[in-house]
User: What shape does this take?
Amino acid sequence: RRRERAARAAGPGRTADGHPVKLLVNLGGLGELPDAAAADSEGVGLFRTEFLFLDRTEAPGREEQTAAYREVFTAFAGRRVVVRTLDAGADKPLPFATAADEQNPALGVRGLRTAARDPHLLETQLAAVAEAADGSGAEVWVMAPMVSLPREAAEFAGRVRAHGLPVAGSMVEVPAAALRAGALARACDFLSVGTNDLAQYAFAADRTLGSLAELLDPWQPALLELVGTAAREGARHGRPVGVCGEAAADPLLAPVLAGLGVTSLSAAPGRLGEVRASLAARTLDDCRRLAGLALGAPDAASARAAVLEALG
Ligand code: PEP
Ligand code: MG
Assistant: This one.
């Protein structure tokens, strides 16, 4: 416990003038838990639960899920853990959750869409999360991947709350969700922008194709504009809007995201130190100015160059 406290000595993330930007870790499995828990963070911003479901012929049962989630919640007692419900499909096909015969799985029944096909999978997972959260000491939030419509966000939030879990959110990974983030925000408690998928869908560029890296660059002004729209619309409805995709791990991009109105950044534990230092070196006004420069650029390389130049 003393080690934990010492590791968190730097306190919450903030800009030079004290504007808070929560710094959280991404967690993709129990093997990553020791490093994630020891990191100087306010909790987990993206707990990817797929690790429990991959490489199996059927879904894990409720008890097995409860045990795994409890390990995570206990390790983060006193901190927040944002659990993302199963994100099956596209680059994560699962024989028991997704159809093998889709022509375009990235555009198919994936993420939250699988819950309409098989409501039992989501129900079991939410029951396990609720049971594991109970008495763990962690502040457990739950969010859905691949939300496209406000109705989906509202239905998901209803299901989450029916399990006694008080905070339900939607990921923003589809351009339609970013453009209509206000309606999404009204339908749930928080938003979290997944820039990996948002870039893929905004640029019609397969995120697994290295040859399309330029289009998938998180500095693309069009992507940043979608992030800014989500942040602004979330703020208008009093909802926090975080970023949990790869964009959040880039220290130079952190002030830009803060300037766009993003309220938390979630990244691999090893990246948080630099992200924290970068935020702490700039005021919120600096961040807004940098965001304006990035948005005004014609492409990712120019956006990065403009921000670098402004920082001297
Ligand atoms: C994302 O799409 O940005 C995201 C955080 O989710 P994943 O990378 O797991 O699809
Ligand atoms: Mg995603």
Q: What stands out?
A: The radius of gyration is 19 Å. The chain has a mean pLDDT of 95. Residues 46, 48, 87, 173, 194-197, 244-245 surround phosphoenolpyruvate (ligand 1) (CB under 6 Å).
